[in-house]
Amino acid sequence: MIVEICANSFESAIAAQNGGANRIELCTQLAVGGLTPTHQLIKKVMPELSIPVHVLVRPRKGNFCYSKEELNIMKNDIEFCKSIGCSGVVSGILKSDLTIDLIATKQLIEVANGIDFTFHRAFDCVKDPLKSLKHLIDLKVKRVLSSGLKPNAIEGISLLTEMNRVANQQIEIMPGSGINFDNAIHFKNEGFTSIHLSATKQLEKKSISFFERGTEEVSDEKTIRKIVGLVN
């Protein structure tokens, strides 16, 4: 089973590889659902990892309806990811009526030609998931990352399983959100071939000023190794 780690930093990316993960989705700002990492971070990660690197392309927090200017930023980020050798990108665009923006998403897919395109958890906002899934199949999207329209994937496993049936191997359904050591095996038992998780632990931040207090999250190598061992 493919274990993809949502890596929010260079440290998380290295932990994912050392823990035996098969692939990472590189991003930042997990607290808002993930945003596009800087080009500098991508440049730092790429030479250090031997496993595939997919990059989240999401220019801002909030909804998944983007302006023409934001769409151009996303296209430029995808071009950069291709130029530096990333194996894939993770993105997607919705309309205000909570349907997939097929025209804009197709444009992103065309820019990404030659590397994997994963439609991200914007999918969990759609009003008709099975119809939306068929649209993504028609667009020849490689995979869709979803929690089954629930806060976490174990709650959405019934819909995810139905999506997997409808997909019929035409598109990969990758469960994600809230997957951990205690529930990961359920997704393997249901026939999924990949899972997506962050496997983070809390680290105390060293306070050098009143701007930098509290904790930060980083993917935990030991947790990743345990989960990889469990599902393989």
Written description of the protein model:
It is a single chain. The chain is α/β, with parallel strands linked by helices. It has one domain (about 1-230): TIM Barrel (Alpha-Beta Barrel), CATH 3.20.20.380. The chain has eight helices and ten strands. The strands form two sheets. An eight-stranded parallel β-sheet has the order 7-6-5-4-3-2-1-8. It has a two-stranded antiparallel ribbon with strand order 9-10. β6, α6 (about 155-165) and β7 (about 170-175) form a beta-alpha-beta unit. The protein is globular and about 40 Å long. The N and C termini lie close together (about 5 Å).
Entry keywords:
two-stranded antiparallel sheet; eight-stranded parallel β-sheet; alpha/beta; 19% strand; single chain; 232 residues
Helix/strand layout:
Layout: E1 2-7, H1 10-18, E2 23-26, H2 39-45, E3 53-56, H3 68-84, E4 88-91, H4 102-111, E5 116-119, H5 129-138, E6 143-146, H6 157-167, E7 172-175, H7 184-189, E8 194-197, E9 200-204, E10 215-219, H8 221-231
Parallel strand pairs: 1-2, 1-8, 2-3, 3-4, 4-5, 5-6, 6-7
Antiparallel strand pairs: 9-10
Helix pairs in contact: 1-8, 3-4
